[in-house]
From TrEMBL:
This is Sulfite reductase (NADPH) hemoprotein beta-component. Keywords: 4Fe-4S, Heme, Iron, Iron-sulfur, Metal-binding, Oxidoreductase. It comes from Simplicispira metamorpha. The keyword RNA-binding does not apply. GO terms for molecular function: 4 iron, 4 sulfur cluster binding; heme binding; metal ion binding; oxidoreductase activity. PANTHER family: BLR3264 PROTEIN, FERREDOXIN--NITRITE REDUCTASE, CHLOROPLASTIC. Residues 378-428 form the Nitrite/Sulfite reductase ferredoxin-like domain.
Amino acid sequence: MYQYTDFDQQFVRLRADQFRDQLQRWQTGKLSEDDFRPLRLQNGWYVQRYAPMLRVAVPYGEIASRQLRVLATIAREYDEPEAEVFKTAMEGQGKLGTTFLPKNCAHFTTRTNVQFNWIPLSKSADVMDLLASVDMHGIQTSGNCIRNTTTDALAGVAIDEVVDPRPYAEIIRQWTTLHPEFAFLPRKFKIAITGATEDRAASAWHDVGLKLLKNAAGEVGFQVSVGGGMGRTPVISTVIREFLPWNQIMNYIEAIVRVYNEHGRRDNKYKARIKILVKAEGQGYFDAVEEEFRQIVEVDGGPHTIPQAELDRVAACFVPPVLADLPDVEPARLEAQLEALGTERPEFARWLARNVHAHQNPQLRAVTLSFKRVGQSPGDASADQLDALAALVDKYSAGEARVTHDQNVLLPWVHGSQLFALWQEAKALGLASANVQLLTDMIACPGGDFCALANARSLPLAEAITQRYQDLDELDDLGEIDLHISGCINSCGHHHSGHIGILGVDKDGKEWYQITLGGSDGSKLSGAPGAGKVIGPSFSAAEVPDVIEAVLTTYRDQRQPFEPLIDTVRRVGLEPFKQAANAVRTPAPVPAAA
Ligand code: HEM
Ligand code: SF4
């Protein structure tokens, strides 16, 4: 995996020192609240419903065991609210009818970062020092700048890969980091890049989506799309260039962002994302980008053209690790061995089929550890789990893991002969649920339990649905289903792209939930990307698990053999689902006779 250079390391350490100084000046009254706010935000420190929230950048999701250990220390020693804060929070939760508020844990996010929900600001500088000690930070995890570029968790190991996207993601990271021209864009800006035939990065839902491909002559280039996003106006991005030579990508992104920076709306934050500009201007925007690109290349001399030597230098940082001392097993023999083990232990066979992915090296596999289980929020890892995870990553995956878009963790370098041992250890840690891509492998935002912007809570719904669907046979029978939950229209839980989407809405100060069906992130199973459609007026929290069950029962009744939910919804339309869901609705009380 990519190793930071001395320059990067010094840069991150100096940033931590600078933050300590800013914090101290705020604590001693030399910086006002208003002056300190942008400084903390620029380092990933938000203030949420009850306490501060820290977002730590994990560039393109790659994370090392030594970094996981530091996250474990932070979770154990710092993700602990002050007593008064926790008391107030619990009282607040009590009013909402729950006392569930996980602490001492890290949270894996859909944009493959890590968040903490409880660290007191007074300890924030110590946390930044700890992070800097393993090359981590919160730069560009907040604010109207270019955020962490995401990619495919299987990058570099996927069997359907055309080109490894990680060197490009790293070059984009270096180029965007503190880019002076793009530090104050009209709104946040997100780039996703994929290099495989299957889009596992939801690229169409991003401000810029990049797909690496090869043309007929075998040359590498990008299909460039622009203007995707969720929020209150869900939009799928539009292809602006079918094939851009790879070495022009920085010049071209510069043109895209520059035109957006100049013309994007700043008068209304809901209309400030690039998707609104692209929708409003259409071809006019595309022409302006092409003209800007021409200027950058022809007048300015293409200052960001990537030299082959630079690509080679960065790509060399992503060479596969040497897995010493492991047997050289013939692939067919390995398959036979795994099959035999699976026959003895059907539970293992199920895990192999669900959580283990083919690898470019036939001796190896990529393994998803599931962070979706009863009693913990989707994507949450306790301090002990993080330490144990780090040990697994060292023992079985050459010290490297990936945070996935689905809020799990992937081990990309597991030798086939070690799968059984890994499964046993992961199982003991509660990380081996064979539920990857099934209903309970859901995405959920923190919602009203933590987030100050929420209309409703997401986590109790995630828990209620997880509890109801614990039978793996039933889950397998239901097949691959993307369930996505957001606590408000900001769409952090990607509800628009869920086959089933749940959105928290506020009516008369109470929590309600709108259900959508048929959304897609653009992956192979989900098909063409698009937003789900609402199936009727919103439901109460108590009704939602029954509504989900009604939807799933309808699917079972309507499906053709081997047809996944998303295809049944597309084939039969919303009507049968609407009827079943609305039958669940608790009838309004009959008014008393006069
Ligand atoms: C609790 C703290 C959080 C706050 C205050 C917050 C706030 C927001 C806001 C205001 C937006 C909309 C921005 C816009 O459209 O211009 C947004 C978008 C987004 N957030 Fe969060 N968020 C939080 C946590 C998370 C988490 C935990 C995740 C991942 C699980 C996440 C993932 C996203 C994503 C993917 C989007 C982009 C949706 C789109 O394409 O428009 N956020 N967030
Ligand atoms: S979707 Fe809304 S409730 Fe959920 S984290 Fe984002 S802003 Fe908060």
